[in-house]
Structure formats: C-alpha cells, structure tokens
C-alpha cells in the first residue's frame, strides 16, 4: 500500500461542490491539498510553517476549530465583517513579514469545504494593494481547495487547537455537508 497521506479520489458530491465553489469564487486562487501538503510537510520537518513563509488561516466558526485544525493554522472569526477580517489578516501578514514587506509570503485559508475561505481569499486578493500597500505586492493568497474536509478525507494530519495533540476528527459543519466526510471522522464540539 502507498503513503498513508496519498490523495484519495473525491466522490461525486465533493467534485460537484468544488466545481461550484471555483465557479462562484473565480477570483480566489486555489491551491490543491497535495501542493499544500508538500509545503506543510517540509515546514513541519523544520517545526514551523513560517519557515516556508506561509501563513495558514482557519476561517471556520470557533466550535469547528475546537474539534481540529491543520497544524500551524491561525483561527480568524468567520463571523466578522470583511473589514474586520482584512484588519486581522493585515496584522497577521505584517507579523509574519519583515519591515520592508512580505517577500513571497503565501497566505492559505481553509474552512470546511472552501466556500467561506474562497469568499475571504477572493475579497482579499481584490483588495490586496489597498489593504497592504506596495511593499506587500508579492503576497499571494490561496484557498485550500476542498479545505479541511478534503484534507481529512485524504488522511492528512490534524491536531487539536493546542497544535500538538493529534486527532482524526473534523467538525461536520452540519448534517448535510458532513456527508462529504469519510465515515467515522465526524465530531461536534
């Protein structure tokens, strides 16, 4: 058998949802779970995503985040206004950057399936220059396509919010969307 973290072919429901999200949020650049996992595993071999110049944002409700997250993710409140989230993301980018700008900083956001994170990334991408200014023009925004559902379905590692305790559970968001998760990994907070 292959690597336990190899990609699993998503079911029809997942593929249809992802196609709909891509169409609805066409201004939001997408990053595959495979591409992000390559960056993530390199960074985690060095103990930090910052080593790869990546800022990972969890854009779910707090109760979803409390069940699990991708290691290194920073929670931002999905219920806030765009302006509030732009301020938070702007501050996080500046914290993860040097004083002259964010040399090739990659901001990756995820939610349950990608709707909320694609919406945020699309808005941030459009307002990047207004929000960050010319010193940050190399910042690249991406949505993690399929978000934590696809990540978990592919058996990729998850942790509790403490960033050290492993888990295999994911909050299903609701009973309908939870059907896109593999059997046995649903858990509500």
Automatic annotation (TrEMBL):
SMART domains: RHOD. It holds the Pfam family Rhodanese. CDD domains: RHOD (cd00158). InterPro entries: Rhodanese-like_dom, Rhodanese-like_dom_sf. Residues 50-160 form the Rhodanese domain. It comes from the Eukaryota. PROSITE patterns: RHODANESE_3. This is Rhodanese domain-containing protein. The lineage of its organism: Eukaryota, Metazoa, Chordata, Tunicata, Ascidiacea.
């Amino acid at each position: 058998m292959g690597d336990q973290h190899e990609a699993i072919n998503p079911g029809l429901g997942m593929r249809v949802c992802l196609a709909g999200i891509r169409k609805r949020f066409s201004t939001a650049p997408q990053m595959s779970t495979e591409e992000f996992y390559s960056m993530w595993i390199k960074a985690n071999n060095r103990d930090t995503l910052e080593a790869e110049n990546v800022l990972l944002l969890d854009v779910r409700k707090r109760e979803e985040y409390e069940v699990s997250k991708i290691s290194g993710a920073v929670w931002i409140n999905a219920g806030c206004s765009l302006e509030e989230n732009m301020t938070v993301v702007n501050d996080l980018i500046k914290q993860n950057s040097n004083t002259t700008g964010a040399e090739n900083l990659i901001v990756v956001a995820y939610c349950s399936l990608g709707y909320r994170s694609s919406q945020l990334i699309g808005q941030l991408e459009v307002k990047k220059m207004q929000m960050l200014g010319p010193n940050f023009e190399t910042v690249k925004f991406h949505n993690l396509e399929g978000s934590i559902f696809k990540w978990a379905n592919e058996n990729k590692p998850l942790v509790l919010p403490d960033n050290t305790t492993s888990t295999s559970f994911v909050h299903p968001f609701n009973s309908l969307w939870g059907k896109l998760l593999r059997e046995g990994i649903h858990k509500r907070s």
